[in-house]
Specification:
- By secondary structure, this protein is α+β, with helices and mostly antiparallel strands.
- It contains nine helices and 14 strands.
- It has helices at about 30-35, 70-75, 80-95, 105-120, 125-130, 180-205, 215-220, 290-295, 350-355; strands at about 65-70, 95-100, 140, 155-165, 220-230, 240-245, 250-255, 265-270, 270-275, 280-285, 305, 315-320, 325-330, 345.
- Strand 8 (about 265-270) and strand 9 form a beta hairpin.
- The protein is globular, with a radius of gyration of 20 Å.
Length: about 375
């Protein structure tokens, strides 16, 4: 049954809704701004000097950016599989992200979801506004993580939906245009979910844990999808497409639109490194949840998006995380005298509420989980 015809259980206490109205002021739609071609960028989009991107960066060679051949993990001989597991361990520990090639998801499905996402963003504004993202929430069309009238805005339009479990869905936000949108999102999300489950098995192996430990721990995993559209910007040196942040998920799966500008940057070795997409690959990054579970061995990566003066950019993101009621904390196997417990225990629902009620600020959200060190009395 397509989600468009399903009812959602909104009585669940795990869904966060603001307890009081949030005043965010006027938010310009960036696609409409682009059409109007203003002579200056509206002040709410202009970043402070310290936040502005440096765009003249030489792209690192593809060999620097870890890539994982998923087919070698699943179907390779013993040596190929072992080599790929070692590469995966290095990618998780040294980078916090990697690109997956030969991931097994039909390329025609990737093309279909990309085309539908682009077609949705090209709809008239009044059509897209039928599915509004209410202030303080993270589903629907608009801008997420905006909580005040003077907050700087991202040069981006978003459309986000809860996928699993079904009670987090809001059927009113699933669009009837473009045609087959709902059905395609269902199939796509199901395939990405399988990929996340399989990747977590191999990530567990890299940690010396049993392969199914994450699947057993996560329960009915939470999954959400967000589509991001970044129109060209006449002053890409003044704005950000997406503010620096780490993800609250366990794993995040990013599909970058074909022919899009290079917009994703990760913070590594105290500098912003652009990620050149590999054709047909998916970008995976470690989220805060996996950092906590691994007691900091595998860290979530801070990342952001920049814009381009002439080219637009489309990305499709899936977030995969434990069920809201699951209690999280460092796994005992990864805690010892030399690596003491760095994070407290909490439920994923608590962390999710904390995450979606704060603006994106690097890795600041993870402070919620960290055990504070005792201050010196000297």
């Amino acid at each position: 049954m397509a989600v468009c015809n399903q009812e959602a259980n909104f009585s669940c206490k795990k869904i966060f809704l603001p307890t009081s109205p949030i005043k965010v002021g006027h938010i310009d739609d960036v696609q409409e701004l682009r059409k109007a071609k203003p002579t200056t960028i509206p002040e709410r989009f202009v970043r402070d000097m310290t936040e502005r991107p440096t765009l003249a960066i030489t792209l690192p060679s593809l060999s620097e950016i870890p890539s994982i051949n998923f087919s070698s993990l699943v179907n390779g001989n013993k040596d190929d599989c072992q080599n790929e597991i070692l590469q995966l361990a290095r990618a998780c520990e040294d980078w916090g992200f990697f690109q997956v090639i030969n991931h097994g998801i039909d390329l025609s499905l990737l093309e279909s979801i990309e085309e539908l996402a682009k077609n949705f963003f090209m709809l008239p504004l009044e059509e897209k506004q039928k599915y509004p993202m209410a202030p303080g929430t993270v589903q629907g069309y608009g801008q997420a993580f905006v909580f005040s009238e003077d907050q700087k805005l991202d040069w981006c339009n978003m459309f986000a939906l809860g996928i699993e479990p079904h009670y987090i869905r809001n059927p009113k936000l699933w669009p009837i245009q473009p045609p087959k949108f709902c059905e395609t999102v269902e199939v796509y999300s199901r395939e990405v979910r399988k990929l996340c489950q399989n990747l977590l098995k191999y990530i567990a192996i890299t940690l010396g844990l049993k392969a199914d430990i994450f699947e057993e721990m996560f329960g009915v995993a939470v999954q959400a999808i967000r589509m991001n559209y970044y129109p060209p910007c006449s002053r890409p040196d003044l704005v950000l497409g997406l503010s620096p942040h780490s993800d609250g998920s366990a794993l995040t799966v990013l599909q970058q639109g074909k022919g899009s500008s290079v917009g994703l940057q990760i913070f590594k070795d105290n500098k912003w490194v652009p990620v050149q997409p590999i054709p047909n690959a998916l970008v995976i990054n470690i989220g805060d949840t996996l950092e906590v579970l691994t007691n900091g061995k595998y860290k979530s990566v801070e990342h952001r998006a920049v814009t381009h003066k002439e080219k637009d950019r489309l990305s499709i993101v899936n977030f995969y995380a434990p069920s809201y009621e699951i209690e999280l904390g460092p796994m005992p196997e990864l805690v010892d005298e030399n690596n003491p417990c760095k994070y407290r225990r909490y439920t994923h629902g608590e962390y999710n509420k904390h995450y979606v009620t704060n603006k994106l600020q690097g890795k600041k959200t993870l402070e919620f989980a960290k055990i504070k060190s005792k201050t010196s009395t000297e």
